[in-house]
Amino acid sequence: MARSLHAWMKSKSDLSPLASPPPAGWASLVSMTSGQLKYASLGVLVLQTTSLVLTMRYSRTLQGDGPRYLASSAVVSAELLKILTCALLVFKEHSYSLRALNRVLTEEIFNKPMETLKLAIPSGIYTLQNNLLYVALSNLDAATYQVTYQLKILTTALFSVSMLGRRLGVYQWLSLLILMAGVALVQWPSDFPAIPQQKELSAGSQLVGVVAVLVACCSSGFAGVYFEKILKETKQSVWVRNIQLGLFGLVFGLMGVFVYDGERVKESGMFQGYNGITWLVVALQALGGLVIAAVIKYADNILKGFATSLSIILSTLISYFWLQDFDPTSVFFVGAVLVIIATFLYGYEPKPSSNPSRA
To answer: At residue 22, what are phi and psi to the nearest 5 degrees?
Structure first.
């Protein structure tokens, strides 16, 4: 619609100055469409983030008759799906031409080996991070995981300052302090006895889950900033870059499968224990990056923080009422509120700013 309006205005500008203006309803319709895209992408992000955490947690605690699916196998499946999705997007960008797709992939990936090799570092870190998230959600309830994982805001900000030379404003530094306080309260030990489901599910040790989340936050911050730095240094399509990431991720993921689960793969196959929930987790994990890209394109940072906050609230409610593996305390509630406030504050940009800086 916006493109057709632009073409209409251009054609009219080539005529006499007395040409009639565009219909009054068009401008409002264009703005309405952009607003709808903004909130639609926001809603999809909330749905994707909440669904991924809850389905991953549910799939790791579901008691089935056969063997449980391998987390390392799920990571490989997600990488493969991500590669196929990005290849389809590049295919679409080049007018659905197989020849153009083959040319782009050959020129940008195989004919530029040094540029491609730069993606090996963040790809390996992302693969480690994805495996750690399965470990975390096998040992933590969805609500605690969601809140604690927001520490990636802190690690991303610190790596942005050290690697990209960015400067944080007063609101950003204040939000990071509030964030650390909120996460500390969420992890504060409770004096109340755990509910039966919690006793059973915490047998894997909550400490293992917390350590896995903290390491994942550090790896997420470093890999994200490193990937952003590479994107700024080159003019390659973000989808091509994601294909490069996925190719290395596929290699690293397969190495993890055969190193840690090689014997189980030989016995029951790589896709043992897969069901509908497992494939849903794989799809949500693979498409998560594309959803975030859409939010960055159509929404602003504050709305993204709003989506994160909604996701935390929904995860807490569903974890309590549906999964029944979480019993919130007043200390957890205060910590979660502080994390939500910090998320909003970090994205806040005061209007009178001559030299704004964001991390």
So the answer is: -65, 155
- Per-residue confidence band for 17, with pLDDT thresholds at 50, 70 and 90: very low
Which two three-digit tokens encode residue 130? 């994805």
Residues in contact with 211: Cβ distance below 8 Å, sequence separation at least 6, in sequence order: none
- From 231, 251, 232, select the one nearest 242 (Cα to Cα): 231
Is the Cβ–Cβ distance between 321 and 178 less than 8 Å? no
The CA dihedral of 228, 132, 314, 242, to the nearest 10 degrees, is 30
- Chain centroid to CA 31: 28
What residues contact residue 195 under an 8 Å CB cut-off, 6+ apart?
Answer: 324, 327
Q: How far apart are the C-alpha atoms of 319 and 324, rounded to whole Å?
A: 6
Q: What is the sign, positive or negative, of the torsion defined by CA atoms of 41, 320, 136, 181?
A: positive
Residue type, 6: H
Question: Which of 128, 97, 115, 129 minimizes the C-alpha distance to 243?
Answer: 115
Q: Which of 202, 164, 148, 201 is nearest to 342 (CA)?
A: 148
Q: List CB contacts of 221: < 8 A, sequence separation 6 or more.
A: 152, 154, 155, 156, 157, 158, 159
Tens of pLDDT, residue by residue over 268-311, are 899 998 999 999 999 988 887 676 666 655 655 556 666 777 78
C-alpha–C-alpha distance, residues 15 and 320, integer Å: 65
Task: Give the tens place of pLDDT for each residue, 97-120.
Answer: 999 999 998 988 888 888 888 889
Helix ranges, the chain (H): 2-13, 24-61, 71-93, 98-105, 113-117, 120-139, 142-148, 152-164, 170-186, 196-201, 206-233, 238-260, 262-268, 276-298, 301-318, 330-346
Buried b (16+ CB within 10 A) or exposed e, 222-259: bbbbbbbebeeeeebbebbbbbbbbbbbbbbbbebbee
Give every CB contact of residue 138 below 8 A, 6+ residues apart in sequence. 60, 61, 71, 204, 209
Which residue's entry shows tokens 């989808």?
A: 239
Contact status, residue 167 vs residue 306, Cβ threshold 8 Å: no
